[in-house]
């Protein structure tokens, strides 16, 4: 039941758009800070785009100076990451990412944005059945002058 409430909250936040401000009252009623709500909303937008293979939205959410560190794949910049994502999306199989509830920490970075630390599950179809793994990540989000957010650094590890 708790997971269902979380999914409903994420879905509602995702429909608010990229730059809709949240009131302090909304944050206090949910037990989350405004920053936590904003970053969870951005996480939802990012991985709704991923799960729907929406490369265009991903291209907007990723900073042009993106650095993506993967413990097995190494370092990729924006262009390399977008190419790898396109290749992944062109595969003919089910692909899904889900943030694991209760595993996310969000902390402000003064005069920059926020760091999001957590665990997520990725699933894909392999040999006719779903293959899922749980992994750790660190996302560095930058708040732009117009109030929108972009993802500038990704560290994906513990694969």
Q: How would you describe this protein?
A:
It is built from 5 helices and 7 strands. With 159 residues, it is α+β, with helices and mostly antiparallel strands. The protein has one domain (2-157): Nuclear Transport Factor 2, Chain: A. The longest helix has 18 residues, at 34-51. The model is unreliable at 1-29 (pLDDT under 50). It comes from Flavilitoribacter nigricans (strain ATCC 23147 / DSM 23189 / NBRC 102662 / NCIMB 1420 / SS-2). This is DUF4440 domain-containing protein. Keywords: Signal.
What can be said about the biggest beta sheet?
Answer: 7 strands, mixed
User: Which fold does the CATH topology refer to?
Assistant: Nuclear Transport Factor 2, Chain: A
Poorly predicted runs are 1-29
- The total strand number stands at 7
Q: What percentage of the residues does DSSP assign to strands (E)?
A: 35-45%
Helix count from the secondary structure assignment: 5
Backbone shape:
globular
CATH class: Alpha Beta
Average pLDDT works out at: 84
